[in-house]
Design a protein that fits this description.
about 425 residues, alpha+beta, Dna Ligase, domain 1, D-amino Acid Aminotransferase, Chain A, domain 1, five-stranded parallel beta sheet, about 20% strand, disordered C terminus
């Protein structure tokens, strides 16, 4: 569960981490009339997504007239597809220096990680990529309940080496790091991040921003904390902070989709590997498909096969939604091959094959990128699906040249996957499936 910024800052306050003066959270311009505001103020869109600043979701207002105009524009804005329904108003703070500070969990090892940098207030991922020496990262392998003093001291010494101006706030920095770690552990969080952590001209340290994600598995234990910030403990709230553009697009269309590759928008392929997109028949089979792709890849292809996504069509998807699922993967820059399977129960094989063929025909006409598709369909409406597929191949053979669908149970799915991967490697080598134009 990800918290909105104003909720996260309430927890920070409970752990004595200083925050800017909170004025109000409003939902409409008229709410300003009820407030006594000492300008200038910061106006911040409350959305569970990163990149607000670049998208126009964080602005400064010097007057009430300017505030009204900003709020009006902001309430009409969407950020990465998410509408703005609430806006945080808070006092501005004077900035002398900006620091990045986070406590998070390594997804591979589940170790706690302390990360900090004297280059706060900017894209920390870009800093890590271009100036890794500017990032302090320390792994805590024993899930300590309190931050070991030597680690906090090491982090502060790193910051002082990078920026001598921070010497005047050495003790305050140490306390803030300790308190953020305590908040992380106390709330059973997955990440607590402050970017920027501001050092003011008066040598105060203030959390100007706040990202706080609580582990869903711990929510039942965090009922008192959640109630203290007026959150229903039974509510569900997805963390969309790190959504890729493909995950966001799938969300808008209306089906679950997860990228398994980091930074897929700028992903660089290993040309020795085959990257496989998956359009399964359901969530359970989607998870199985990921494992089976890896299993077949390890067994027959020297571990050079990489599944790139999880996807679920849900029960009874429409023809257009099925088509959109295939469009999404064919637009994905990593995809070399698509493996699909339809065990028609709630979902119809006929609807599935119509949606798949619709996507291929549309892409062929538009001269868009075409990807080989291998799969199998069994179950509800299979006879109608088979008839539609055969008719479509007779009528429009060119768009369906690289569509390979096994109808019925004469071949197990593991063999379909193996055949598809073999073909995928050959197709990649021969540059089959390039842009239509």
């Amino acid at each position: 569960m990800r918290l909105y910024e104003h909720e996260a800052k309430q927890i920070f306050s409970q752990y004595d981490i200083q925050i800017p003066k909170q004025i109000a959270v409003i939902e409409k311009i008229e709410d300003l009339e009820e407030l006594s505001i000492d300008f200038p103020i910061m106006i911040k869109a409350m959305v569970l997504i990163g990149g607000r600043g670049k998208a126009g979701g964080i602005k400064k207002a010097e007057t009430i007239e300017e505030a009204k105009q900003i709020i009006k524009e902001m309430l009409e804005l969407t950020i990465h597809g998410y509408p703005i329904e609430k806006i945080l108003l808070e006092k501005t703070v004077t900035i002398a220096n900006e620091i990045y500070l986070a406590i998070t969990t390594d997804p591979a090892t589940f170790d706690i990680v302390l990360v900090t940098s004297a280059k706060g207030g900017i894209d920390i991922e870009e800093v890590a990529k271009t100036e890794p020496e500017e990032i302090f990262k320390k792994f805590l392998k024993h899930n300590e309940k309190s931050l070991p003093s030597e680690i906090g001291k090491e982090a502060v010494e790193f910051l002082l080496r990078k920026n001598q101006e921070l010497k005047s706030v050495t003790e305050k920095l140490q306390r803030t790091i300790d308190r953020l770690y305590s908040a992380f552990q106390g709330a059973e969080a997955k990440i607590c991040e402050i970017n920027p952590l501001i050092v003011t001209k008066d040598n105060e340290i203030i959390a100007a921003d706040a990202k706080f994600v609580i582990d869903d598995n711990s929510l039942y234990r965090q009922t008192p904390l959640l109630k203290s910030i007026e959150i229903n403990p039974e509510s569900k709230r997805h963390d969309v902070s790190e959504q890729t553009q493909y995950e966001a697009k799938a969300y808008q269309i209306g089906f679950p989709f997860l990228d398994l590759l980091a930074n897929p928008e700028n992903f660089k392929k290993d040309e020795e590997k085959l990257y496989v997109g998956l359009v399964p028949g359901g969530a359970g089979y989607g998870i199985f498909s990921i494992d089976e792709i890896v299993n077949v890849g390890n067994r027959y292809f020297d571990g050079k096969v990489v599944p790139i996504n999880f996807m679920d069509s849900g029960g009874g998807p429409s023809i257009s939604k099925v088509a959109d699922m295939f469009h999404l993967l064919m637009d994905h820059p990593a995809t070399d091959l698509i493996i699909t399977s339809r065990f028609g129960g709630i979902s119809s094989c006929d609807v599935f094959i119509q949606g798949l063929i619709m996507s291929l025909r549309d892409r062929f006409i538009a001269k868009k990128r075409m990807i080989p598709v291998f799969g199998r369909m069994v179950g509800t409406d299979l006879a109608a699906a088979k008839a539609f597929l055969e008719k479509a191949k007779r009528e429009t053979p060119d768009p369906l040249e690289d569509l390979h669908i096994v109808v019925g149970n004469q071949k197990i799915m593991a063999d379909v996957i193996k055949d598809g991967i073999e073909y995928g490697f050959k197709a990649k080598k021969q540059n089959i499936g390039l842009e239509g134009d």
